[in-house]
Design brief:
The complex is a heterodimer of chains A (273) and B (297). By secondary structure, chain A is an all-alpha fold. Chain A has one domain: MetI-like fold (Orthogonal Bundle), CATH 1.10.3720. Chain A is built from 13 helices and no strands. The chains are: A mainly alpha (273), B mainly alpha (297). At the A-B interface, helix 1, helix 4, helix 6, helix 7 and helix 8 of A face helix 1, helix 2, helix 4, helix 5 and helix 6 of B.
Chain lengths: 273, 297
Amino acid sequence: MRSEGRLNWGRALIGWTVALGMFFPVFWMFLTSFKTEITAVATPPAVFFHPTLRNYSAVLERADYLAFAKNSIAVSVGSTLLALALAIPAAYSMAFYPTRRTRDILLWMLSTKMLPAVGVLVPIYLLWRDLGLLDTVFGLILIDGISVLPIVIWMLFSYFREVPAVILEASRLDGARQAEELFHVLLPLCTPGIASTALLSIILCWNESFWSLNLTTVKAATLTAFTASFSSPEGLFWAKLSAASTLSIAPILIFGWISQRQMVRGLSFGAVK
Amino acid sequence: MTGAIVTKPIRRTHSGWLLAPSVGLLLLWMVVPLAMTLWFSAEQYNLLDPGKKVFVAFSNYVDLLTHRALWIAMGNTLFLVGLVLGITLVLGTLYSLLLDLDFPGRNICRLLVIAPFFVMPTVSALIWKNMLMNPVFGLFAWITRSLGFGTIEFFSRAPLLSIVVIVAWEWTPFAVLILLPALQSLNPEQVEAARLDGAGRVALFRHIQLPHLLRPMAVVAMIEIIFFLSLFAEIYVTTGGGPGLDSTNLAYLIFRDALLGWDVGRASAGGVVAIVLANIVCIFLMRIVGRNLEDSK
């Protein structure tokens, strides 16, 4: 028993070292966000210092930060709603009215993700320009919504499949129409599953950077584009950058931590439950 | 039995229209841009001179394939994809094995390990570029100086490796996110039986845990390959593809041709190369994975 205990502490030491090491860059950024610009670049690096909230107030006072944040919220929520609106009926139909082709359709949907985004950058850019969607929130919602659609369908399909068909059949016998069956029976039963699907979709769209860097400039630029603008070498504003970054990642990090167990299903396309 | 009787007539009610919007949109998404990329790649078409569109068949490809930029970018792309994939799979497996063990605070450790995956790529790249790897004020510079190694200019001396480190840090958590639950879904009785048969840790991993992880590993590899082929933000924020072409991958090369050079024809030809590469890699990978799965049965 004693050797077992010692083993546990050995494991704990390695485990905690690895965990703290992986988390360190995030922690360091968090710490820097409370420094003044001068202590942020001090050598040796300052670990003990008088924390200040000035960076946060400076970032929040800049009207453009809030505009970028608003765009990020609009894009991630908008694309998630778009994807859910398309995916719920599709997953419902495939889960409860499967045909011979259902399996193939699901696999085909997955295969659309095999098209690397960069391969279609040029046509999408030109199409978006001609349709007037360049640098618009709607344009980004559309493309992010389509990008997450296969994942959302797969995830919902796997949740819907777990609902015993008997429950839906009972409502059918009561004469419920398809729409009633979907809205009054299935959706309430699957609320947790739909919620974690939505959360995963929001996380993916929030962090999406390829399209938001290439299809937006000013008006529809999201927080990913905003933080990228800090990459210019003129002037080191590490403390403000850290404060802005902390604000940008905090909600998503918390979402991710809450829903990590459920989202595995969506991320692995059902390979892991 | 009643189920069969009830579902039969219901099945005649059409539910295809529920599926149609999703299928239609994805079909459009797949076919239209792909056709356009193929079409543009056969044209001489520069946005700075849009009136002068000329059909040139394969000359964009010839131009691209005979220019060393493409081969450098392709090499960099494969280097990035291969190395990061290897690192994330090995570290992801090791971390998962570690977090699968019982020790105080392991749930908190799991949360800390997966955190980097939720950090947006531009922020991750900036944290590493500035606060850690900056040659003057960065934490690493201070450490190397204190140890007497002097200053290392990470992004000009080893730009591609620096990007590999950043991307591996972002994506190792993804491997853990998938592999750890897969490991935990292993039947405990099977593990116990192997232990009773005298299997050590290594044998247990090799004969029980690893075969069980192959399918989720394949999923991790597929998803990572697709993302890594379009790796962009990390390069855009840190090195801008430089110095020279040292850290330019296919995605960045196409971005440069398209949105900095406005050369639609050449960028599209590059896009077709990227798509072909993605498909070769994926088919190749699926083959290997398929064979491994059969072997392990």
